[in-house]
Amino acid sequence: MAKILLAAESLDNIVPIKTILEANGHETMACPVAIDVLSIVLTEGMEIVILQLIEGSDRVLEIVRTIKNDDIAKGIPILLLANSEDEPDTITSGLEAGADDYMVEPVSNMELSTRIDTMVRLKDLGKNIKQARMVMKEEVDMAHYAQFAMLPTTFPYAEDVSFHTEYIATGDLGGDYYDVTDHEMGRIGIILADISGHGPSAALIVSILKSIWDSNKDMTRSPSMLAEMINDQLLRFTPAERFASLFHGIYNINDRSLNYVRCGHPYPFVLRKNGGAIERLEASGDFVGIHKDFYVEEETIRLEKGDRLLVYSDGLIESCDKQETIYGFDRLTTKLKDNFDMDGATLVSALVADTIEFCQGEKLPDDVTIMLMEAL
Description:
InterPro entries: Bact_Sigma-Reg, CheY-like_superfamily, PPM-type-like_dom_sf, PPM-type_phosphatase-like_dom, Sig_transdc_resp-reg_receiver. By secondary structure, this protein is α/β, with parallel strands linked by helices. It is built from ten helices and 15 strands.
């Protein structure tokens, strides 16, 4: 049985309906439409609302909109009561405002009971959906917390190299992953990956990637060897439509060398302290997780004191404005030149701010991750 609120211009008009509902075991309350109906719905815990239409008045339409626009009450079913003299447009307006159904008076016991039973089922369905959403949100919140807990908060060899990072996920669960780990003997492992797609499936693949990374970070594998292993593991454990771009490097603080691979990933940049040059790292390689016949090039560069390495996900350069113009490499390069002398943290923040400004209020289409490493 349900708690039903009946609202009409005159309470005498709804006495027959109220009598039928109470005879069928429902708990009812009646009120004039002139008062704050929403407050009664919320304070009394009403589960169904029956509103009698008033010809030539928008009051009932206002009540319907108010209830349907309320975060708590919007799931409560609303039934309109019309009489045979009401214009069809009046009923249509009520349904367009958000009412769930209507009846034309006089109403028979059987017809009213049938409609109310439908409303009760709608109410129960809405409650079940709300509970399911709450459970799902709790699960997503926990996954969100776990995913961000995977990301590093401290970095090794702080006297020899500094790191500045920023990660903006477009949803509760992102598909970007980065990490910086101590590979011992002055070697620092760097990884930044971008999983195709979004949501729980992308987040699951991020966890697989992290597991592979953590289980191999103490080994002496070269970046190309690790990239090949990641490719094999993703082919084994992930569906064909899921793959990733990847940058992986090992920086040696002893000789300032950086061995790196770029597997389908956007070009990283090196900002040279002396001379102000901005160099693009162009070693090529396939995306990981697509082909068994995996191709990757490994290259080595040297980072002098003050040189900086910028690695990022494609969400940075593929962001669009309202005219669907892409941010692109050229704008990024210009921004790096214009802000070359900024310290690392400020530069990363400036890149994020420029991307958001460029989008002109549009939602970022993809996760954005930025990692800046400076050789000290």
